[in-house]
Amino acid sequence: MTYETINQANVTGSAGLFVYVADVVPIFTPMLLFSIFMVAMLGSYYSQKRLDGRGSFLTSLAVASYMTTIISYFMMLVPGLINVLTLSITTVVTFISTILLLFFRE
Predict the structure, then answer these.
(1) Is residue 21 part of a domain?
(2) What pTM value is reported for the model?
(3) How many domains does the chain have?
């Protein structure tokens, strides 16, 4: 199986480039969202820890999951960039992190 090259693809702008990469490497979009999630979660946690002396993991988890879900909904506006399974997983993680934050807050 041969991959479609960038010259053969209809790439217009950065959205077309991301769609091309997502077509060639199907795990690109979930890994991009996961890396955004991890950077946001760890950044929020260590920022809280630096300012208050202690960090709240559940709060950082909820903030990062909301941010990742919003970004994934924006990515859904570009046809072919993200699939419904990835969008539903980010939404479920957001609901779970919200429930954990509400019931097990420190």
Answers:
(1) no
(2) 0.84
(3) 1
User: Does 14 map to a domain?
Assistant: no
- Report the SS3 class of residue 77: coil
Buried b (16+ CB within 10 A) or exposed e, 1-30: eeeeeeeebeeeeeebebbbbbeeeeeebb
Provide the token pair at 88: 């539903």
Greater confidence (23 vs 91) lies with 91
9 within some domain: no
Decide if 20 is inside a domain: no
Evaluate if residue 88 carries a pLDDT over 80. yes
Task: Round to whole Å and give the CA distance between 20 and 5.
Answer: 9
User: Is the CA virtual torsion 61, 66, 67, 68 positive or negative?
Assistant: positive
Expressed as residue numbers, the domain containing 70 is 26-103
pLDDT in tens, 13-40: 777 777 877 888 889 999 999 999 999 9
